[in-house]
Amino acid sequence: MRRAPQPTAPPSLEAELPPVEPGADLARPGLNRGSKGLCFLLTLFVYVAFVPRFIRYSSPPTGDQGHYLMVAMSILQDHDLDVANNYARRDEDKFYSLAPHPSGFVGMEAPYPLPPHLAPTKARPPGEWHNFHLPGLSVMVIPSWIIGGWFRLWWPATVVFMCLLGALLMLNVFLLAHEVTGRQWIAWAVWLPLAFSNPIMSYSYLIFSELPTALLLVYALRRLAMGWRANGLCRRILIGLCIAWIP
Known about the structure:
With about 250 residues, the protein is an all-alpha fold. The protein has twelve helices and no strands.
């Protein structure tokens, strides 16, 4: 007589998860470069495709964005953080009157001249003006400001740079989801709604510190959660820089 097949117990959740090394909180399941590249490039392509529409309606930059750009110009043009002469020269014209106005331009209202947003201090001479915000983000946008200056597209180039940071952030979110679950389809399912909804997509067009802060934190969290042995000397230095550079 044949014995009836014994029912097999369903696999436990722990058995389905990728193995985690001792001393670590995240697995290192590995992911091929093609999937990583597709995630990054697809996110960046969609973000950049909407830049002209963003500039058509949301121009000039408002809120704290203009002040970050004024500090970037002060570092580039004067090699200092004193923005008094930048406000006196009306350097904001580079993202006001000199900003591109595409066909069907709508724009939005913004104060002109740009009112200073200064740090309250009595430790400096009255003639020196220093921005209220720390200069970390302003330093980050300098390369894109230089490249944009070659085409008189200073501010739009910084918007593209922010889109690049947004794509890098979503790549790290994608990798984090894969490292937690070991399932690539789950990583894609996490990536899709987060990449193309508020707040990540909308902040990818704004010169605010929230986006680069999120990128630096998620990267540092991922690498540290993999355990100390998962990171060589260069990665450890990069992790330290990410934590120290939070703008």
